[in-house]
Structures are given as C-alpha cells and as structure tokens.
Amino acid sequence: MNRPVIRYRLLRSFVLIILTAVAGTGLAQPVDVLQSTGREILGYADRMSVPPGETVRFMISSRQPQYQAELVRLIHGDPDPRGPGFKAEPVDAPFAGTYPGRVQTWNPGSYIEVPHDPVLSLESSLTLAAWIYPTTPRKGVQGLIAKWDAEQGGYGLFIDQEGTVSLWLSAGSGDIYRISAGVPLFSTPPYHNSFPLPGVNWYFVAAVFDASNQTVRLYQLPSSSLPGGHQPARVEVKTEATQVGSNDHPLLIAAYRSGPGPRSSPSGNFNGKIDRPVIFNRALGEDEIYSLQNGSIGSDSSELVASWDFSIDISTSIVRDASPNRLDGRAVNMPMRGVTGHNWTGKEFDFKRAPEQYGAIYFHDDDLRDAGWTADFEYRIPAGLRSAIYAVKVCTKKDEDYIPFFVPPSPNARRSPIAYLVPTFTYLAYANIGNGCSECRQAESLGLYSRHSDGSGVAYSSRLRPILDMRPKAITTWSAGGRTPRHFSADLYLTDWLEAKGFTYDVITDHDLHREGKSLLAHYRVVITGSHPEYVSEAMLDALQSYIADGGRLMYMAGNGFYWVTSLSEDAPHFIEIRRWGGTQGWEAAPGEYYHNTSGELGGLWRRRGRPPQLLVGIGFTSQGFDRNAPFQRETGSFDPRASFIFEGIDPFEEIGAFPSIGIGYGAAGDEIDRIEPGLGTPPAALHLARAYDFSDYYQPSVEEVMEVRRGIGGGDDPLVRSDIIYFKNQREGAVFAAGSISWFECLSHNNYDNNVSRVTENVLRKFLEADVLP
To answer: Rounded distance, CA 197 to CA 82, Å?
Structure first.
C-alpha cells in the first residue's frame, strides 16, 4: 500500500529534535572504548615498527584528569607466578611525565564522501537511483544517497525506520517531506557462514521528484522473483513541495548527516552493498526508469549529474564518477571493495577480468579505518637505542595500559646475528578477538576473527586503534584451563628466554619484511619466528624462501604458520586484508569475492596457491585444540648422527616437554599443531626428530584435510592429528629447525629455563650460529 506524504511545518529550533526521533537507531553514536570496556585509560601508536631516527606518535584516552607516561623495554609479558613473572625495564625518554587526560572517541561506519559542488545543488526536479543489497533493513534510518540538511535544505534517498525506501526533501524553510515506498525491504537471515548470496535480495531503487507537477514517484524493484518477501513497490503521490533547498555539505553515499552544518558527524550508516548510484537533474519518465534499471543511462549528458562507477580504482579509497562532471569521492572507514555487483553471473571470480560485474561496495556500520584520535605526545627514536620490543606505559591511580612498538636496527647499524621476526600481521588479524579477551569483546573495534553487525566477516584490520590483546599481561580465556597467553604476550616468552640465555638479537617485524624483502634477512645468520606467524604476504614468503636457499637458518617453533594469504594495502599501509575460503576459518568469503581488492591477488590459503607451509619449513597446520597438551616422543631421526647436536645433554628415552607448561596444562605440543607431509612438500631428506600424539577429540583435523564426514577423525584416532619436529638443510648450508606447536614457547622457562625444550632450542640456536657447515 502507499503511505501518505509526511510533512512537517516546524520552527527551525525544533526540526533537529524531530529528526533525531525519526532516525531512531540510525543515528550514529561515537564509540567511547573506555566506557565499553570499563577501563580508565587506553591508547595506541600510529606506527608498529619505528627505526632509530624516526618518530612515533601516541594517542591516549583517559577518564582521569591526569595520567603518567613512561617508556619501558618489554622482556616477559605473562604475570603468571608459575613462570618468571612480568618483566619490563624502564628506559629514559624525553616524553616521560604527567599529561592532562581527556576522553577520545571514534566514529565507526563506512560511507562515501563526495565534496560539495554547485552541480549537486538540485533545487528543482531530480532523480536518484541505485542498486542496493540491504543486509539489515530494519535497523533504523540508513542513508543511501544524501545531500541532506534539514535546516538549510537538501534531498536524500533513504531506508526509513520501517525498512522501506524513502525520499526526503527539505525546502530549507521548515518544510520537510518524507515519502515512503511502503513495502519493507526483504533480508534473509544470515547464512551461518555469513556471506550474501549473489542474485538474492538485490533491489533497484529510484526516487523521482517532479517539481513542475509536485509529484514524487518511488520504485523498489527486487531482482529476484523468489516467492515471499520480495515484493515490488511503485508509489506515485502528490506533495506540496515546489522546490528543494540547497546546502554546501558533502554528498554522502551509504550514510547521511543528521545534524546542521557541514561538520556534523555522519549518521545512519547503511549495512549492505550499493551498486551504480546515479543522480539526474530532472525527473526521469517511467520508461527511462526501467531503462536505467536495465543498464541504460541515456545519451543526454547535461542531465546526468553523477554516475559513480565503483569498479574503477578498486584497490584504493578513490571513488570515480563516470559522468562529465567528474564528482569523484573517497571511501571512508574501509568499506569492502572487489565485491560482486547486482549483475554478477557467476562465470568469473576475478574482478580484474570482469570489472563491470564488480560495480558494488559493501558498507558496514562498524567499519573503521582510523580511530582518528589526537596525539598526546611523540617520541623520536634515538640513534643509540637497542633493537627490541618497547612499550609506552600510561597509568592513572587505578589503571594502566601498555602500548607496544618495535624498534628494528638502523639501516647502517651493526646487526646482531639473530633476528626475531615478530608476527605483526598476526597481531592485526587477531586484534580484539571476541572469543578470548573479555575486554576485547567490548572494544567495538574489529579484527579478522570478528563479524560485522550484519553477520558478515571482517576482511580488513587496522593498527590505528587500541588493540587490547596486543598487550603484555593480555591473557585469553578460550582454553579449558581458563588462561592462555597468546600472540604478543606469548611471543615475549622467547624474548625472555633469549635474554636469560645471553643471546643478542635484533627485532624485525612482518611489516619490515614485507617492505624490505630478502635484503633485510641477509644481515642475519639465524631468523626465529614468533609462535604463530599465520598471516604472511607473498613478499614475505619469497624473502624467507630465498633466505633459506642462500644459506640462511630459520627456526620455526610455532603452529599454523604461513597459512593465510595476506595483503598490505599500498593505499593505506596501516591495515591488512584477507579473504577467507577453503581453510579452517571463522567465516567464509562470498562466492566471487576471493580476490583481494588491495593487491588483486587470490586470497585464501597459501596451500590453495601451491605454497603450503611444508614447502618452506617442512611442516604445516594439521589440527588445533585448547583443552590439554602432550609431550613429544623421539622418533628414529633423532638418533641419526646428523641430529646429535640437537639432543646433546638429553637422555635418549626422555620425552620432550613432559612437564607443566605456563600455558595449556602439561606438555610442549598443543594449541595449534603442525605435521610432516611429503605430498605437500616436506623435503625427503628431512630428519623426523619427534612426534606428539594421543590428543583428545577436541583436536580435529583441519578443515582442508577432511574430504568427507566420517568416524575416527578425533585426536585419539586420526593419524593426521599429531605434532612433528623436524630438521633439514640444503646444499648451501641453509637449514630449518621446526617444532610444530604454538605451545613450545610456553615451556622455555620451566624450572628456571633448565628443561629439555629449552635445551633443544639452545642447542639448535648455538649450532646454527657457530657452524659454517652443519651436519
């Protein structure tokens, strides 16, 4: 049915109150992460890796009027009394002192902003149209195409709080008109893998205002003919509107400005896809609307105000207008690009090969590119500062936060023989993971294991916001034992062990390796990875492969490494991108959306691109479980004379890691584990040193290993569920020692570092450092 025109004649001072009431939940609220997490102070840095001579800035939000700031070098991040305890060394820094506190917020939600241009001031007839794929049409008012200011005047195509397409017109004199199509848009419940199904729930929507006869026509035309819910709507009503007021605000796509003035915050962020939005400066006729739906814009370019083509410059935040007016805009807060449009046929999966079928952008009301906080202070890294892991400690009387950053060596500095390759891509991927850290669940700032408010998976993760689980003392809680230090906090176990054993080392990061490649690794005799280097780029894999081939030594004592194809955006290098499919994953990318928009490469597992981790380190991901660990049993290869240096000082019948760990219970093998697989690239000459097995049925084979549902695929029965330790070398004396367990690091400090996990690690590291020729 048709809903009547809603007309308001109000005093200007009352207009915004009414607008707020009408918008309902569509109005955006700035996120106060302190309030949502119950914290008093939090912050972030604008860079992760900062070499000497360069500057890092720190952004702080504090509920207290004052806070203290100081610099520390992080050594051990876990306060558990079963281990060495928290260790941090104070470092003199010029910024140390007292600062005034203030609360800082951010405004999530993606949209497109098109700068004001006089051609957008449509004071008479107009036509607005687009293809849309709404995923939460009932969440409140959502902007589609809006140049809106209730007081000055404006226009906009919206989804109203009833979930139906609506045209808003303001004459700027207190007269506001809202005309609704009257039929709610349909949205299927989220599929459990949370991707939108191509060809389902697309609508062509259009609004026509004809000032000459004071009529409005609205079209809400579903592309699908599936029965139930997908009802078309065509509305034509008379209005009292004779003109539209103008404003000098930017035009927004997928949001609108709810307040007066061009600096008011965007509100009503749209959830879903928008494809081919267009604006005309006249009222199109009935036949023209249906021609527009079928892809024909018409030949009179003077009447076409804008026609945005989202298939152009997909790798960037630039949004191109294909009309002669060239009203280009920019995408704000990282909406998802490289996604299928309303006309995707399913015949091509690479947007570069059929860009005309990828003319959509997927917007979310919780997207975030940059929290946008103001810097409180900065720090220029002095030339003499050692390469290490540092943090700015900020504290009030009742709360504290540690903001980590990494100092690699200066390009001209003398290098240590050991490089600790810190997996910063993994830290970004797991940022604020909801199923581990209770505070992170409330952080309202998503990582790559999160889902958006509409149920779809998060494909981008930015460093420019507080990351609550990238902290010392951060303890996740998903294990049966109730505590599991992971990622950043767990990687400090190795830092502590290196310090305790007297090794000198440099700290380098994924970001450094991606940028500098093989030339960065060439300085080092040995490279040691973190405990979970799961997310890696092609440049990183190429560098590591060349490093080993040319005689470098790599120690990988970790699990689930070198797994997901990861891209670092050249347009905005502070965030990474993934597209999940074909692996063990928290969500799955939609069909046709497996290619990264930032790099153009095929996403998913490196294994799916012919580069399984076994090709690099001899072992690869096979299972995961978080209830209990297991010790390693020595295999035949451990008694080979070539492996004698590895087990020097260890009894031949001794299990490796058969003691309590600081993490998941008992044993050095667990959490996520890797195995040998010759068919995936384990070198034939690799020595199989040890194996852990007899895991619980919590440990299941990784999804990519299971071809069919069957009995006996739990940890107690399936031979694929095991953790292996191997050693191999090549003809140029490049070598790999790999222990396939995230929990390996958790055992290093047991018994004051006097244990066989520590001994094996030290034996290998010293031999890799000292021997020109390896056994």
So the answer is: 50
* Structural tokens at position 333: 């807060």
Amino acid at 174: G
604 and 719 share one domain? yes
Q: How far apart are the two ends of the chain, measured CA to CA in Å?
A: 83
Q: pTM higher than 0.90, yes or no?
A: yes
Question: What pLDDT does 707 receive?
Answer: 81
Query: Does residue 186 sit in the same domain as residue 222?
Result: yes
What DSSP string runs through 462-519?
ESSS--TTSSTT--B--STTS-B--THHHHHHHHHHHHHTT---EEEEHHHHHHHTHH
Whether 36 is covered by a domain: the verdict is no
3-state secondary structure of 21: helix
- Residue at a domain's end among 363, 386, 408: 363
Residue 377's pLDDT is what?
98
Instruction: Say how far apart CA 726 and CA 740 lie, in whole Å.
Output: 9
Q: Which residue type does 277 have?
A: P
The answer to the question of residue 83 being in a domain is no
* Number of residues written out for the chain: 775
Total domains in the fold of the chain? 2
Is residue 49 in some structural domain?
A: no
Q: Is residue 317 part of a domain?
A: yes
Strands 553-558 vs 526-529: parallel, antiparallel or unpaired: parallel
The span from the CA of 331 to the CA of 329, in Å, is 7
In this structure, what is the dihedral angle of CA atoms 57, 58, 59, 61, given to the nearest 10 degrees? -160
The structure tokens listed for 114 are 């098109």
Contact between residue 629 and residue 665 where contact means Cβ atoms under 8 Å apart: yes
Are residues 432 and 325 part of one domain?
no
Please give the Cα distance from 102 to 112 (Å, whole number). 30
Q: Could you read off the pLDDT of 169-183 as tens digits, one per residue? A: 999 877 899 999 999
Q: What was the pLDDT predicted at 9?
A: 30
Domain CATH code at residue 244: 2.60.120.200
95-150 pLDDT per residue, tens: 999 999 999 999 999 999 999 999 999 999 999 999 999 999 999 999 999 999 98
Range of the domain at 456: 376-770
Domain end residue (candidates: 295, 329, 363)? 363
Take residue 629 and report the two structure tokens written for it: 């660990």
DSSP lists the bridge partners of residue 44 as: 59
Distances (CA, A) of 370 to 45, 111, 150, 338: 11, 14, 29, 21
DSSP state of 211: T
- CA distance readout (Å), 42 to 64, 249, 472, 698: 11, 34, 14, 36
Residues 134 and 273 in one domain: yes
Report the alpha-carbon distance of residue 333 to residue 515 in Å, rounded. 24
565 and 529 in one domain? yes
Q: How many CB atoms lie within 10 A of CB 58?
A: 21
List the chain residues with pLDDT less than 50: 1-25, 435-436, 438
Q: Are residues 535 and 510 in the same domain?
A: yes
Strand partners, 148: none
Residue 490: which of 676, 662, 732 has the closest Cα?
A: 662
Task: Say which amino acid occupies 502.
Answer: G
Question: Is the domain of 652 the same as that of 747?
Answer: yes
Q: How far apart are CA 68 and CA 97, in angstroms?
A: 6
Considering the domain architecture, whether residues 443 and 386 belong to the same structural domain is answered as: yes
Measured between alpha carbons, how far is 393 from 403 in angstroms, rounded to an integer? 6
Output the average pLDDT for the chain.
91
What CA–CA distance (Å, rounded) separates 575 from 460? 6
